[in-house]
Amino acid sequence: xxxxxxxxxxxxxxxxxxxxxxxxxxxxxxxxxxxxxxxxxxxxxxxxxxxxxxxxxxxxxxxxxxxxxxxxxxxxxxxxxxxxxxxxxxxxxxxxxxxxxxxxxxxxxxxxxxxxxxxxxxxxxxxxxxxxxxxxxxxxxxxxxxxxxxxxxxxxxxxxxxxxxxxxxxxxxxxxxxxxxxxxxxxxxxxxxxxxxxxxxxxxxxxxxxxxxxxxxxxxxxxxxxxxxxxxxxxxxxxxxxxxxxxxxxxxxxxxxxxxxxxxxxxxxxxxxxxxxxxxxxxxxxxxxxxxxxxxxxxxxxxxxxxxxxxxxxxxxxxxxxxxxxxxxxxxxxxxxxxxxxxxxxxxxxxxxxxxxxxxxxxxxxxxxxxxxxxxxxxxxxxxxxxxxxxxxxxxxxxxxxxxxxx
Length: 407
Fold this sequence. Notes:
This protein has helices at residues 35-38, 76-88, 103-132, 178-182, 205-214, 228-237, 258-265, 282-291, 342-351, 356-371; strands at residues 2-11, 16-25, 28-34, 45-48, 53-56, 58-63, 65-66, 69-70, 91-98, 148-149, 151-155, 193-198, 218-221, 241-242, 270-274, 297-300, 312-316, 319-324, 327-329, 388-391, 397-402, 405-406. By secondary structure, it is α/β, with parallel strands linked by helices. Strands 1, 2, 3, 4, 5, 20, 21 and 22 form an 8-stranded mixed β-sheet that branches. Strands 6, 9, 10, 11, 12 and 13 form a 6-stranded parallel β-sheet that branches. The chain has a 3-stranded parallel β-sheet with strand order 14-15-16. Helix 5 links the parallel strand 12 and strand 13. Helix 9 (342-351) packs across helix 10 (356-371). The radius of gyration is 21 Å and the shape is globular. The relative contact order is 0.17.
């Protein structure tokens, strides 16, 4: 089964192909084509993109929910609804992100994530079998185009209570023995990604990072007041990323550079940011674009269940969270996540002067590299998954494809 996407601007890793086409075969990118050669290409179906810009699908590594669904309390069906919403916004892969909670809540949440991952894998195998038999794809228990769940992100519970942000301190933990980590359920699924945000200065923090890395987890530094020497030790132990940079960490001071100064200075550490204009003022986003290469930055949404619901009051994480003019706040006055999608973050960075290639790195390639899946997705290259989003001249989503399946 061959599908030709023609008459598009293709945002490649290092350049933009101003007028090109893309051939998709069995869910993968088979050829990147200059439009002068497209007329001779045979395909079972042809989609004319009418000059729209084709990006690799966005990957959100930090998202707590949307459309009324909170990851901590979601069923597999609830998570499917989030996956479908994300696909409509150009996201083709995501990490459901848990806030600190009791063991039984973690158990239920991870079981739901595992169930959806299994259902998505079954759907993918069914589609592959139908394509091989040259039959129309059957509709299974999932809508055929939904963002792929990649694993789980634990935001905490091993973080600093003095930098809790909207997280609930009563569920924070320290690390003394491996049993403290064993209490976090894992996903029994091939290639499931386990990602966690840690404050390295907590009791046992550096040893925790070593143990997490030994188990194959990805470790990010966040919700922290760590000093540069502790952060150096954390990096040596295997933590080489920072969660929602500048947020929920001690501020930059000329006599106490802390995590922000350390993060700016360490070129081998990557950072993610919430580009909603609320968590970071747009001027600070411009500062980051000026201070570091795009290869170090990743965009995240940090979206909560209120995303897509508009302004109002919501019951989330056992408390009232208010959304007003796109800004969230809890009873303590803390920002409590965002109500944006990765598409909104992409538009923000483009409006601040980032190039389309730079934004592709931030929204797709860099998250894929961090998660260790760049060989599979994260860029428009032959042999990779056909995870794609086409944006029109106003930034609206014109087409989304996940694993070769069209929304």
